[in-house]
Amino acid sequence: MTKGIVTVDIGTTSIRAVLFDEDGRSRYVSQRDNPPHYFPDGRVEQSPNTWKKFLFELLADCANAAEAFRLDLSAVSVTAQRSSVIPVDAAGEPLHDAIMWQDQRTDRMCRDMQEHTAAVFQKTGLRISSVFSAPKMRWFREERPEIYRRAHKLAGIQDYVLYLLTGTFRTDHSLASRTGLFNLETRDWDDDLIKLYGLDRHLLCDLIEPGSIVGTLQRAVANVSQLPAGIPVISAGGDQSCAALGMGLLEPGDLVVNTGTGGYVLRYSAQPVLDRHMRLFCGAAAVPDAYVLEAGLLASGTIYRWFADQFYPARMDARSDRFADVNADAAASPPGANGVLLLPHFKGAGAPHWNPNARGLFYNLTLGTTRRDMARAILEGLAAETAENIAVMEQLSGETGVIRSAGGLARNRLYNQIQADLFGKTVIRPPESEATALGAWMSAARTVGLFATFADAYRLATEGQAPETYIPDAQNHAIYRSLADRSNRIYRALSDSGIYDQAP
Q1: Within 312-370, where are the H helices?
Q2: Of 187, 171, 100, which is closest to residue 135 (Cα–Cα)?
Q3: 237 and 317 part of one domain
Q4: Where does residue 466 rank: exposed (0-12), middle (13-18), buried (19+ CB within 10 A)?
Q5: Same domain, residue pair 319 and 175
Q6: How many domains does the chain have?
Q7: Cα–Cα dist 301/305, whole Å
Q8: Neighbours of 461 (CB within 10 A)
Q9: How far apart are CA 342 and CA 368, in angstroms?
Q10: Residue 336 exposed, middle or buried by CB count within 10 Å (0-12, 13-18, 19+)
Q11: How far apart are CA 194 and CA 28, in angstroms?
C-alpha cells in the first residue's frame, strides 16, 4: 500500500476534505456547502457545530475512499480561513458563534483606535481593521464580558478544528500573523499589542511553525471518522498561504492571484516587506521563516454568487447550473461591458483603499443595459481592483512576470482571460484545481518525510500536467486600462466628497 494524506480545507462558504496519494495526486474529494449567516447590519456569524459535524463526515468519507484506493493514511493536514474568532471553554465547547473575518461590528472600535495604526503596522504588517482577530477579541471583552471571563481560549477556526482532532490548542505563525497581535520580527505574541487591545495573553493559543505536528488523532475521533488513531495532525497554515504554496509560490518574485469568496494577491518574500502607506499587508507564509506580501479584496466570488442568487432564478431542472448561465451571459457581453462599471466594495473596500464604509456600485446603467453587461462588469471590476493591487505590489518589491491564478473564479476561463488582458501579463492556471488542499498536502508530505523540500513535492505533484495559459490582448488591455482608471476616479470622487462618511 502507498501512503495517503487527508487534507481538510475550511473555506468561508464550504468545507472539503481531499485524499491525496504520496505523489500528490488528488484521488477523492468530499465537500459540504457551509456558508455563514450574513446579517443586514454587517455582522457575519457561523455556528462552530457545523464545522464539527461536517468534519467528521468528510473524514469518514476519505477513510472509506482510502480503503478503496488501498492508501495507508499517514497524516491529516488542516488549513482554514483566517481571522475569525471562537471563544471556547476549557473543554473546547464554543461559548458563542464564530465571528467571521468579514464581520463589521468592530468598525467603530477600529476607527477609535486609528491613532495607533502606524505603530501596530510596524510590528504586525497589518492595519487596525475589523477584518483581523484582535478587534473581535476586544469586542468580546467589552460587549460580552461574561463570555470573555469564561473563555479558555479565543480560537480561530483552524485552531478549533485542530483541537477537535488532537485535544490541543495551538496556532501556527501564518494564522497568528492575521490576528494583529503577532510580531513579525520576534515571531511571537507581542505583549504591548495584547495590552493595547486590553486582552489576556493566556487566551491566545500556543504558537508553532506552519507545517508542525500539533498532536495525534484522538481515539474518539478515530472511532467516529474511521481514520487510524495516533496519526499526526499537522497545521499547514492559513488557507491563502496554503493556496500560494500549492501554486508554487516558493521563490522571491513569485506572485499568485487567488479569487474565492474574497480575492487575494500574494507574493513570496524572504523577509518582511512593509508598505509605508499601509496599503498592502505582510504576514508569515506557510513556508517556515518566510513571509508573504498580501493584498486582500473583501468580496469577490461572493459578489458573483449574490448576482446569481438575485438575477438567475433556479430552474425546475435540478441539474441546471446557474453559474454556467451567468458565465455564458458574461461572455456574450463585449470587453468593457458596454460601459458598465462595478466598484466591488460590497463588504467595504479592501486593499489598497481600506475603507470599511465604501459600498458596491454599478455605474453607467442605461435602459439599454442588459443582465449580460452587469455579469461581465463584475468580472472586469474584480480584475481591475486586483490589477491595482498588483501595481502597488510591484512598486514595493519589483516587477513580476507570469501570474498564477487560482480559486473558484479561476475555473472560469473568461475571467482568466480578462485578468490577463487587464494585467497586461500572461496568466497561467496551474493544473491542480485544489491549490489550497495541495499546499496543505505539500506541508504534511514534507513534515512526515515523504519529501526533503517543498519544491520536490510540488514538482512531483504537477509533473506532466500543463497549465492553462492566457496571453494578454493588447486591444482589450487598452480598453480595460481606460475603464479601470475611470473606476478609480469614481471611487476617489465619492471618497473625497465625503459620501462614504454619511450614514446609509
Answers
A1: 322-332
A2: 100
A3: no
A4: exposed
A5: no
A6: 2
A7: 6
A8: 24
A9: 17
A10: middle
A11: 42
Q: Cβ–Cβ contacts within 10 Å for residue 145, how many? A: 10
Q: Is the domain of 330 the same as that of 397?
A: yes
Residue 86, beta-bridge partner list? 155
CA distance 193 to 185: 14
In a domain, 464, yes or no: no
Q: Could you state, in chain order, the average pLDDT of each consecutive group of 10 residues for the chain (504 residues)?
A: 94 93 95 92 94 96 96 96 96 97 93 95 95 97 98 97 97 97 97 98 97 96 94 96 88 85 89 92 93 91 93 68 91 97 94 92 97 98 95 91 88 96 93 83 96 94 89 96 94 94 67
Instruction: Please give the grid coordinates belonging to residue 313.
Output: 432564478
Q: What are phi and psi of 285, to 5 degrees?
A: -85, 170
The Cα 255–Cα 258 span in angstroms is 10
Q: Which residues on neighbouring strands pair with residue 94, listed in sequence order?
A: 88
Whether the model pTM is above 0.90: no
Q: Which residues pair with residue 232 across a beta bridge?
A: 216
Q: How many CB atoms lie within 10 A of CB 140?
A: 22
- Cell numbers placing 371: 443582465
- Bridge partner list, 32: 15
CB 172 within 8 A of CB 208: yes
Asked if 376 and 327 count as a contact pair (C-beta separation under 8 A), the reply is no
**Euclidean distance between CA atoms 256 and 277, whole angstroms:** 22
Domain boundary among 204, 224, 247: 247
From residue 473, alpha-carbon distances to 380, 411, 493 in Å are: 14, 20, 30
